[in-house]
């Protein structure tokens, strides 16, 4: 049997990107390995996020991305997205279906992720 241990991002600045995600998710960098392989723990996610230093990140759109759900206690999607943009994320697209909405963003290193309404 397998369990999901962590989700790993390739980046040219592992420590910088790990600190950004830790700040956005109220987490902390728990391992930095001299900036080569950094690990973030956050109370908001059931797994750790890892950031691995690479010479060249994969070009093009991510084939896997985070889908984060805003909580009702945070006021829902809109204030969460506004905070992420203020913190350095970029809004890429907004998607709306009947009864469900999400925003597509990029972190400061270009990794795509989504934020949806609570569900």
Automatic annotation (TrEMBL):
The lineage of its organism: Bacteria, Bacillati, Actinomycetota, Actinomycetes, Micrococcales. It comes from Paeniglutamicibacter kerguelensis. Residues 6-115 form the Glyoxalase-like domain. It comes from the Bacteria. This is Glyoxalase-like domain-containing protein.
């Amino acid at each position: 049997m397998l369990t999901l241990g962590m989700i790993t991002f390739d980046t040219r600045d592992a420590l910088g990107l790990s600190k950004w995600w830790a700040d956005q998710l109220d987490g902390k960098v728990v391992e930095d390995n001299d900036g080569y392989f950094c690990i973030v723990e956050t109370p908001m996610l059931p797994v750790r996020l890892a950031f691995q230093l690479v010479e060249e990140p994969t070009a093009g759109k991510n084939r896997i991305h985070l889908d984060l759900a805003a909580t009702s206690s945070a006021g829902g999607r809109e204030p969460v997205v506004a905070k992420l943009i203020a913190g350095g994320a970029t809004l890429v697209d907004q998607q709306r279906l009947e009864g469900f909405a999400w925003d597509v963003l990029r972190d400061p290193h270009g990794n795509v992720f989504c934020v949806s309404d609570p569900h």
